């Protein structure tokens, strides 16, 4: 990343959902700490992957960036402009530059509208009249996402899951956004279709120079799509690094455990490193003190329970590789079977 | 298996399952055969609508008898399940054969404690007392790795996390030490770290009891981890089968190859696009003629005379290994090598 203002700058981002309880007058009795202090940047045209298990706050983060949710604390800046608590009017021009692609291609398209109407919706709302008219633009978009422009007047139910997701992509592209937040865009699709949509998103990213925040739980898909990857756990970033560093030299025990748990479709003669975490992710209502991963971590000590480990460049990391751990894993000197590929020399 | 005189534990022969719907007849399963021995795990891979779940519901006799037409043969340990009466099936289900479903929350009753639901199956099949059933439930919960099982046995499903519910369902399925366990996407809804725990658990339990397992999934990675043998389904038919090593190392059907190349891996190249299978899975209401994969197949034109579109390729199985494709073995070696070359540097 350059030292110019990043496209998106998130600092200390927090979202606590209140829990109401009590009778007869309900009051706030606690909070789900869905997102609890996130710092990251996304550069122009860059793709940042957010990975983590369910309940880690990755989707909430996406909704906070797009301001579909109001942050509890922290700051979201878009092109240097603070939009954390911006009002409707102030947000309007920015909303057209930040678009979202949703997970469920069945729930995110209005079944009573034609494809043409769905895709031109954002232009209508923003009063944009492209040269040649909206319909021409929609047909262009359909072509870009690999659908037949003749399908302009069809309804969503006439399309398969993969095609619907393409419609969602076309809609997101209709306002020529600078940043797209894609929340699990392929996880609802069949395996043979996932690759089609991943390729489409990659083509869109490269051809149009759009920055992406790519939210997914599938580590292999994220690795394929994102230049930088952040691993989240219970509302916090555990580790963030360039793709090669994160997958080739994971320093946080959680990252390592997560990677080792991914089943791969190969039959290796050399068994891979296997780390089996015990138990489940704790509740975000009452997260563990100190390091949130400590209850499942095999390295945890007294210090982990009392001190929150800062997200810093620990010794042995290359610049830009930040790890939040008191006892980071030793840097990969003898690469394991899958932790090998890291050809570039240290910057 | 054909030459051995010993009857396989589970044998499915030329199974056909057709549903009549308002729009016409859905050929969900169209001529499927496989055998399964005790202590082995058969992985069935396929996308949505490939017929993998229907096959297994049919084995358990859980299909809707009014709208379903079934042909073929399903023999479990010498007993033909298709001609068995509902009462006979009831005695087998949960006892000799049982099933783990994908959605654990939807498969557990929210009104009864986990312990009671586990114990119910046990009482029904063994006639045990309430006390015995409860003890058995505690033992099962302990075995599937639930902490403090004697306390958690009185919890309701909503008090369990996703992984624990899946464990509870496994405990319920295994409470009578079944000889056949059908697991339908049991880990799809789980996070990877929990998925790994559940798969380890199933492997351990299989070692302990010699259970035969049918593991249904769409994830080839899961197959690589847990299965002994693999059956790849497409459009209601088996397109390829063999041992895990045979199928994953040396796929013989273009669909299997396509599935493998379309998946990103944790150490493959990242700057080249993935190689997806074009198009989408077929509708079983009106499936393609000939080979059901031919409209999406990269190699259909290599077969002379357009046979892929007209003639159904037969699945010839030798020693448990076979694929249903018109390509000659020599053609496959040549074409598949080029194709796979794009994947592994």
TrEMBL record, chain B:
Asked if the keyword tRNA processing belongs to this entry, the reply reads no
Q: Where is the ABC transporter domain?
A: 12-260
What GO annotations for molecular function exist for this entry?
ATP binding; ATP hydrolysis activity
| Record's bilayer topology term | Peripheral membrane protein
Task: State the GO CC annotations.
Answer: plasma membrane
InterPro entries noted in UniProt: AAA+_ATPase, ABC_Ni/Peptide_Import, ABC_transporter-like_ATP-bd, ABC_transporter-like_CS, Oligopep_ABC_C, P-loop_NTPase
For this UniProt entry, what is the primary localization, expressed as one broad class? membrane
Single GO biological process annotation from the record: peptide transport
Q: Which CDD domains match?
A: ABC_NikE_OppD_transporters (cd03257)
Name the family: Belongs to the ABC transporter superfamily.
Name the chain's protein.
Answer: Peptide ABC transporter ATP-binding protein
Q: Which organism is it from?
A: Streptomyces fumanus
């Amino acid at each position: 990343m350059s030292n110019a203002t990043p496209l998106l700058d998130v600092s200390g981002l927090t979202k606590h959902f209140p829990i109401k309880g009590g009778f007869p007058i309900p009051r706030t009795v606690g909070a789900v700490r869905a997102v609890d202090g996130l710092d990251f940047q996304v550069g122009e045209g860059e793709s940042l992957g957010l990975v983590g298990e369910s309940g880690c706050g990755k989707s909430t983060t996406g909704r906070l960036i797009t301001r579909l949710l109001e942050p509890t604390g922290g700051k979201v800046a878009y092109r240097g402009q603070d939009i954390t608590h911006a009002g409707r009017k102030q947000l309007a021009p920015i909303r057209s530059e930040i678009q979202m692609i949703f997970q469920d291609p069945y729930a995110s398209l209005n079944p009573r509208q034609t494809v043409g109407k769905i895709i031109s919706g954002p232009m209508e709302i923003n009063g944009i009249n492209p040269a040649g008219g909206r319909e021409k633009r929609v047909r262009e978009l359909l072509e870009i996402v690999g659908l037949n422009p003749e399908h302009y007047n069809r309804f969503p139910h006439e399309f398969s899951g993969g095609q619907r997701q393409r419609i969602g992509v076309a809609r997101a592209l209709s306002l020529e956004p600078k940043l797209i937040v894609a929340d699990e865009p392929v996880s609802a699709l069949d395996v043979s279709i996932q690759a089609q949509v991943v390729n489409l998103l990659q083509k869109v990213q490269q051809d149009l120079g759009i920055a992406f925040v790519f939210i997914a739980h599938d580590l292999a898909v994220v690795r394929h799509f994102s230049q930088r990857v952040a691993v989240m756990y219970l509302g916090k970033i555990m580790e963030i690094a360039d793709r090669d560093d994160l997958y080739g030299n994971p320093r946080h025990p959680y990252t390592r455990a997560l990677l080792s748990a991914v089943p791969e479709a190969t039959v290796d003669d050399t068994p891979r490193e296997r780390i089996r975490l015990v138990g489940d992710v704790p509740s975000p209502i009452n997260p563990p003190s100190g390091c949130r991963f400590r209850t499942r971590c095999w390295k945890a000590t007294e210090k982990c329970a009392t001190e929150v480990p800062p997200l810093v460049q620990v010794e042995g990391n290359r610049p830009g590789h930040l790890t939040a751990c008191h006892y980071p894993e030793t840097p990969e000197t003898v690469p394991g079977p899958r932790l090998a590929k890291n050809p570039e020399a240290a910057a | 298996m054909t030459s051995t005189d010993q009857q396989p534990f589970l044998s499915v022969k030329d199974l056909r399952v057709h549903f009549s719907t308002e729009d016409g007849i859905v050929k969900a399963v169209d001529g499927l055969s496989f055998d399964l021995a005790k202590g082995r795990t058969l992985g069935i891979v396929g996308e949505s609508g490939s017929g993998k779940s229907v096959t297994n519901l049919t084995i358990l006799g859980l299909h809707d008898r009014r709208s379903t037409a079934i042909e073929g043969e399903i023999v479990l340990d010498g007993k033909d399940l298709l001609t068995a009466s509902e009462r006979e099936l009831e005695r087998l289900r949960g006892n000799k054969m049982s099933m783990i479903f994908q959605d654990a929350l939807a498969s557990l009753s929210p009104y009864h404690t986990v312990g009671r639901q586990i114990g119910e199956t046990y009482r029904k099949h063994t006639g045990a007392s309430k006390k015995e059933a409860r003890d058995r439930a505690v033992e099962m919960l302990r075995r599937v790795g639930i902490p403090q099982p004697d306390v958690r046995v009185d919890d309701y499903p909503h008090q369990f996390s996703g992984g624990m519910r899946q464990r509870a369902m496994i405990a319920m399925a295994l409470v009578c030490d079944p000889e056949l366990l059908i697991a339908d996407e049991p880990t799809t809804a789980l996070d990877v770290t929990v998925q790994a725990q559940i798969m380890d658990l199933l492997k351990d339990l299989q070692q302990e009891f010699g259970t035969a397992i049918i593991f249904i999934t769409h994830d080839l990675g899961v197959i690589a981890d847990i299965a002994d043998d693999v059956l790849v389904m497409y459009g209601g038919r088996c397109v390829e089968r063999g041992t895990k090593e045979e199928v994953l190392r040396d796929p013989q059907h273009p669909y299997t190859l396509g599935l493998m190349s379309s998946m990103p891996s944790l150490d493959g190249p990242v700057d080249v696009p993935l190689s997806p299978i074009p198009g989408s899975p077929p509708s079983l209401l009106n499936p393609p003629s000939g080979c059901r994969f031919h409209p999406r197949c990269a190699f259909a034109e290599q077969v002379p005379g357009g046979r892929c579109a007209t003639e159904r390729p037969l699945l010839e199985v030798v020693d448990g290994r076979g694929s249903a494709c018109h390509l000659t073995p020599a053609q496959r070696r040549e074409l598949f090598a080029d194709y796979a070359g794009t994947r592994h540097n």
